[in-house]
Amino acid sequence: MYKDWEGIVYPEEKPPRFDPLRYIADFFDTIEINSSFYGPPVARTAASWVKRVEEHRAFRFTAKLWKRFTHERDSAWTTKEVDQVLAGFDVMMDADKLGAVLLQFPWSFKRTDESREWLSDVVRTFNRYPLVVEVRHTSWLAPEFMASLAEDGVGFVNIDQPLYHNSIGPSAHVTSHVAYVRVHGRNYRDWFRDKAPVEQRYNYLYKADELEPWVERVNEIAADPTVGDAYVVTNNHYKGKAVANAAMLKSMVTGSKVPVPSGVFDAYHDAVEGYTEPANDPIPAARAR
User: How far is 82 from 56, CA to CA, in rounded Å?
Assistant: First the structure.
């Protein structure tokens, strides 16, 4: 639900009762829920999400944990706040539609005794779910940390991000049966710029040669005998660039062309040609009546 996806990912003219969730689920086997970072979904909303993708048996959501547990660390959380998270996530988990819960921490979350204790408490609190943790500071790249994730059954999130000092670089770590990759884009100019709009931080389109090393890592990760599911998420969402790059990655992994919304094919033709083909647009309302 990005306004800047209109006319690119989603057609300008839509049929009656057009549902963007159902539409995207026709192209991809997972969607990473971003809204749960800003506030936990209520059970009724989660049930709606599950129902709208039920025809796709292989489809799984992944979801960010509420920032109260990852970014707002000045005070201890409450039982009520935990229950708010459980209410929505349990609905997806019980329906076998929750593939992973993402604990996304900022670059400023460095490996200290205090941070390790905080992370341990979060993991213990939500260990009923398949957890994956994203840290962005190199202080976490310690063998004992990887060992602790493996012991707790928590996946390490392998990321692509603009590389500045002490920023974690590309990797192919596996620490649980759920493997996870997130590519954020490489917008060096705006990644750490305080006044940069959030949209601009993720305004980046990968070229095929930039994705090829990630295809190798994804294949390496997926080949690990301990891995049950491997999720690859593109977070460079501005104007649907994430959709273009996700389709390219899917094609490069499978070796076949994949369909994309025609607006994405037209907008990013030079990048996606050879990997994708335009899908038929839904019949607009004017012609559907």
Answer: 30
Tokens at 10, concatenated: 């989603």
> Would you say the C-alpha torsion 86, 87, 88, 91 has a positive or negative sign?
positive
Q: How far apart are CA 7 and CA 11, in angstroms?
A: 5
Question: Rounded CA gap, 240 and 111, in Å?
Answer: 34
Q: What is the pTM of this model?
A: 0.94
Q: Which pLDDT tens digits describe the chain residue by residue (289 residues)?
A: 899 999 999 998 899 999 999 999 999 999 999 999 999 999 999 999 999 999 999 999 999 999 999 999 999 999 999 999 999 999 999 999 999 999 999 999 999 999 999 999 999 999 999 999 999 999 999 999 999 999 999 999 999 988 887 889 999 999 999 999 999 999 877 777 777 777 778 899 999 999 999 999 999 999 999 999 999 999 999 999 999 999 999 999 999 999 999 999 999 999 999 999 999 888 776 555 5
What is the number of alpha carbons within 13 Å of residue 119 lying toward its C-beta? 25
Tokens describing residue 106:
């900022």
Helix (H, G, I), strand (E, B) or coil at 222: helix
CB 11 within 8 A of CB 281: yes
Q: Quote the DSSP letter at residue 110.
A: -
